[in-house]
Design brief:
Blueprint: E1 15-23, E2 32-36, E3 43-48, E4 59-73, E5 80-82, E6 85-86, E7 90-99, E8 104-108, E9 112-117, E10 132-137, E11 142-145
Parallel strand pairs: 3-6, 3-11, 4-9
Antiparallel strand pairs: 1-2, 1-4, 2-3, 4-10, 4-11, 5-7, 7-8, 7-10, 8-9
Amino acid sequence: MITPAPTSKLASHLARGILDSVIAESATKPAYLVLDIPDTSYKLYLRPTIAPQTLVGKRIVGTIHAKARRVDTVGSGGRYVEPVEGRPRRVQGSVIATDESTNTITVNAGVPIICTVTDERQKAKQFQRGQFVSFDVLDGATFTAEPL
């Protein structure tokens, strides 16, 4: 079910969602949480950097961090995260911020994602605010909850 979009303002790099579930670590997979993004069908599987203090089913705010394999500029298409349910594998959206000191770009892909540029031929300073980009995401995207 798609929930109504919240109306309170947040910093542009913060992701807002509903904590759907927290999955414990197993012998073959690390622990992860499932984040439902309001006003979308997204259920993102993200590794928590700290244990969330939020109860399942309640609102949670934080940052999503991912590592981009190679960032390409694109001329058309929409903002999205693929797949709709699961760990992020592909992201496309507009650059809303860059940070040269950490070599990261923040991309609005329906949800803000802070992406580390990992291709050694690329630097965050090469990308401009408003530029439309697309990239594959390396395994291990994380979520760091902020206090509400």
